[in-house]
């Protein structure tokens, strides 16, 4: 019997929802749109970089296989950077120029929660007192509004910083303001995989039907993960099959299909205060003779969490932790049916409050609910610690007052039914599990009535919002006679909410629609998808006439800047006083013409077409830069090019060709994608931004070297180096000079980044000086470079707005 795992191949569902990014280094940028049109320009450039479920799932599988082959060590050579984007209700409304909810969403639904936002619903979630929105760093509705959330995840700190810098520049160019930036990082050494209190995190994540492989012998569990139940995908991705008790999938708006609602919370942790409190409460229990003699602070802390530091469940390992038992550390094969009173794992423990499993009773005398009846309450958590681990000897990072905590992120199809219900009705509800204070007959040995269990003391604010008094939990134990005793414990709060946002992570086709200012799905070729889940665009290797769209509608007109790259049309350069170029911007391309002469009049020859109309660019969402192969340029025949592009934050390159045939241009993919490591001259480069040929050092015959200045972003800033490329079949490349700062160029003074160069077509005389337009963001300037030794440069015309180019408007 074939198992359907089609969700693993989805290029519609963003990564991190079903296929977790699983990176050690994370940054979340909270963004505000200053101008809706500019924001759509920003999104248009960003969308091709967004990670898909398929990309992340494939990488995670390769990474896992490589890790197993190396005996458990992370493969250093296998890295990736992932991007995911989501929007608040106001952000969607700005981009789409229409209300996402033409009529009010159903009262009490997750759609209503999304529209309200987390600040408006804070008090119902226990975010009162020190946790109230007025004290938040972001998302409080009082300061700068949040319109979008960009999550960046990378394997290395260097890759993360490089990606952050690139996104900061892209945002600034489009007047997108970074309201707040929260970095987070997996803790190192023995703390790896744990949160700051020291407990292993993320063990109880659910499996997903259609994504995770089922156990052949227990088809409702994930293969290789005993006890991990498979949950319908529609509990996390809108519009897919979900639990029968959940919000009907056909009642979701069309724009939500294949998307997920996201909750982000910044939870500050007072680590020394929390552990000090545990020690104090242990002494109270000892005086009450409610704990065994061997009980330690670790023993009590484990019962508060429900697991030991290693992740081993308390219900299976009651006396002590088993840190050297890897099976116990990821054990999910248990429930609480044999512990209805919470004598082993307290009813108020964090584990039981957030996932009661098969231990939840409607009342103490009722049978427990089956675990599957709680499927509709599950969430997909993707949290990461932030801040340095606590070090009592440190006066800097790691000290008692150093900020630290958990960047909590979760995904679900219904915020109210899933996250909010867990938070408000389970974790923050004193009388959960319910009806324990019933006046019905109580078994001998119990208080009459039993005390209510109490709030989750690990994460919740245990102060009563009305009386401001601390509300205790009920610690249950047996006395010498075997009767149940009830000891109240009052915990102070040492986890505070310091920021929160509700957002929606759309499908890729909706992202493309938002680029055009609408909340309707658009396929990779501009097609209306009607909300279909869709597969992937096929990677063609044949040829196709450039400019055709296969009968599909062309993209709507937008400004063609910031510019990514210009390629001269081979047989239309300096022809009758006109030069034509393909102008690349985002996921599209147009043809422009520039006239010779002092005015250099420009015009648009052809409107935008999608990049996917080029056979050689299938699978590319955006072109970073292009380098013509120096000795393989035939204006009347076939010309070859190296195309550099980024997929999920990692730059690669491919070899393509363009053949001219009487005004028709046929493209072909000559060699598929490779990593930059194949270029010896690019060693240490994070991303190539643009190439500028050294004008008097070009040899189209291939008998000698051709020289280039390579502008690249590495370590968060743009630099340049000098390289050479030899002719012949190997095209051997050499770095001729190490990196230098842009400030070395007199003509580039004031620029922190160059997007691309466009040589002025009739200003390239033999021997120089040579002139070029330099594009950077929304502006351009004109520079001159002299020939000969040193190649001195100067500024010809200062910065002007790209609006001056008629062809780019």
Description:
The chain is an alpha+beta fold and 809 residues long. The protein has a domain at 537-808. The protein is built from 11 helices and 30 strands. Strand 28 (770-776) and strand 29 form a beta hairpin. The protein is elongated and about 105 Å long. Mean pLDDT is 91; it is low at 530-551.
How would the blueprint of this fold be written?
Layout: E1 25-33, H1 36-46, H2 53-69, E2 81-87, H3 89-96, H4 110-116, E3 148-154, H5 157-173, E4 176-185, E5 207-208, E6 230-231, E7 260-269, H6 271-287, H7 297-305, H8 326-329, H9 350-354, E8 380-381, E9 384-386, E10 405-412, H10 416-427, E11 473-478, E12 484-489, E13 495-505, H11 508-515, E14 543-545, E15 565-568, E16 578-585, E17 588-595, E18 602-610, E19 623-628, E20 638-647, E21 650-661, E22 664-675, E23 687-693, E24 706-714, E25 717-725, E26 733-741, E27 756-759, E28 770-776, E29 779-785, E30 793-801
Parallel strand pairs: 5-6
Antiparallel strand pairs: 1-3, 1-4, 2-3, 7-10, 7-13, 8-10, 9-10, 11-12, 14-22, 15-16, 16-17, 17-18, 19-20, 20-21, 21-22, 23-24, 24-25, 25-26, 27-28, 28-29, 29-30
Helix pairs in contact: 1-11
Q: Summed up, what is this model?
A:
Helix content is 14%, strand content 27%.
Keywords:
809 residues, alpha+beta, five-stranded antiparallel β-sheet, 11 helices, 14% helix, elongated
Terminal residue distance:
56 Å
**Helix vs. strand class:** alpha+beta
Radius of gyration (Å) = 30 Å
| Main pleated-sheet profile | 5 strands, antiparallel
Number of discrete helical segments: 11
Shape: elongated
Strand content: 25-35%
Q: Give the uncertain stretches in residue-range form.
A: 530-551
Helicity, in percent? 10-25%
Quote the average pLDDT: 91
Would you count the extended β strands for me?
A: 30
